[in-house]
Amino acid sequence: MTLRFTTAGESHGPGLVAIVEGLPAGLELDREALDRDMARRQLGHGRGGRMKIESDTVEIRSGVRHGRTLGSPIAVLVANRDYPNWDERMNPWPVDASVEESHLPRPGHADLAGLQKYGFSDVRNVLERASARETAARVAAGTIAKGFLSAVGVSVFSHVIQIASVSAPERDDLSPADFDDVDESPVRCLDADTSQTMVAEIDRLRKENESLGGKFEVRAFGLVPGIGSYASWSGKLDGRLAQAVCSIQSVKGVSLGEGWDVAGKPGSEAHDEIFYSDDRGWFRETNRAGGLEGGMTNGEPLVVQAAIKPISTMTQPLRSVDTETKEPAQAMRERTDSTVVPAAGVVAEAMVALVLAGAYREKFGGDHIDDVLSALAAYKERIGWRR
Ligand code: EPS
Fold first, then answer.
1. CA dihedral for 172, 176, 181, 183, sign (positive or negative)
2. Cβ of 132 below 6 Å from ligand 1
3. From ligand 1's centre to the CA of 195, what distance in Å?
4. CB 122 near ligand 1, within 6 Å
5. Residues 255, 293: Cα–Cα separation, whole Å
6. Residues paired with residue 4 on neighbouring β-strands, in sequence order
7. Whose Cα sits closest to atom 17 in ligand 1?
8. Using CA atoms, how far apart are residues 89 and 96, in angstroms rounded to an integer?
9. Beta bridge partners of 65
10. Is there a contact between 123 and 115 (Cβ–Cβ < 8 Å)?
11. In ligand 1, which atom is closest to the CA atom of 132?
């Protein structure tokens, strides 16, 4: 059994769509969780004017009946409330009005290579799909995946650990309860003092017409060992997580566990020694591997971090070239966010959830959620898993 999902939709088109295929029947979905996650993705100090227009909600179009999955593909629709303002420019059908083209690609965006790749003359044909607006559909799909994970005892959270040069104190002792109030912080950071400094830094750099990048972390709890595979490159969970998180717009680096830091450590400080006791079963006293060994979960919490570059739409545009005249020009100016690091964490929760849900589907199969739970219980029994 494989889990697949895809999204469709342009940033200022009529709406976004996601299709999730491969979940078992009988799974109860939480409507409020969908609305909550959609709203969480829109949070964060440093968002731009678009967020005042959009208030994302998910419409389920198939695959769910009376709150439970049917086992058929689940289609969801997220309308773009901004579309009426773009009706002429983004209409799927020819319009009478003459629509001005944009020829000023932004450094750092998909604009120029996208024009070259498809032979377009209008940058808008590229940027509409390359836009991070697409992540709204990923979050809708990811929240459905989280619903499945919750049924198998897995929870997924995120927090911001750095914005521009401001970093939060390192925490390696986090548990699910620590994330209860993370969305109360205007930057989704667990440390109150750092949150304030981050907000001040966003305000300072925004006044200087700068955009800001940063880092976020995703943690997943409740994973049983052996999810993923060591046997083939394509089944390795670490590689699949890295690809999923790196596919989020503007993400430039993904690390697992101690990631880059482990490169400089001796082996004795790099690994997590193995212990066993009658009451705890198998356990580790450290989690440097971030819950992953050999491309599989090892039963410890999953720790994924990612670095995101500053947004490439600048209020003080960088130098570029007019693609029609080939003359030097400033890149296009568009309404934009200053930073999306807090939102990117929520998107990464969705991507991690989709990968984990897919790997659980592969390992435990089952057409109905009860089949999945029976297979999971039998596996836990076989390996003597106590948690
Ligand atoms: C984006 C540019 C901005 C963001 C948008 C992503 O949109 P606009 O050009 O309409 O002001 O607000 O993000 C969203 C709309 C969203 O829902 O996250 C871009 O170019 O990537």
1. positive
2. yes
3. 23
4. no
5. 14
6. 21
7. 133
8. 11
9. 68
10. yes
11. 21
Instruction: Give the residue whose CA is nearest to atom 5 of ligand 1.
Output: 133
- Residue among 43, 131, 134, 135 whose CB has most ligand 1 atoms within 8 A, to mutate: 131
Summarised one tens digit per residue, pLDDT across range 160-172 is 999 999 999 999 8
Average pLDDT over residues 371-384: 97
Reported confidence tier of residue 335, pLDDT bands at 50, 70, 90: confident
Judge whether 307 and 215 are in contact, CB under 8 Å.
Answer: yes
Q: Is the pLDDT of residue 334 over 80?
A: no
Nearest to 200 by CA among 312, 46, 58: 46
Residue 60 has pLDDT above 80, yes or no: yes
Q: Tell me the pLDDT tens digit for each residue of 260-273.
A: 999 999 999 999 99
**Residue whose CA is at the smallest distance from ligand 1 atom 13:** 133
For 160, residues 6+ apart whose C-beta sits below 8 A from its C-beta are: 168, 185, 187, 188, 189, 198, 214, 215, 216, 341, 342, 345
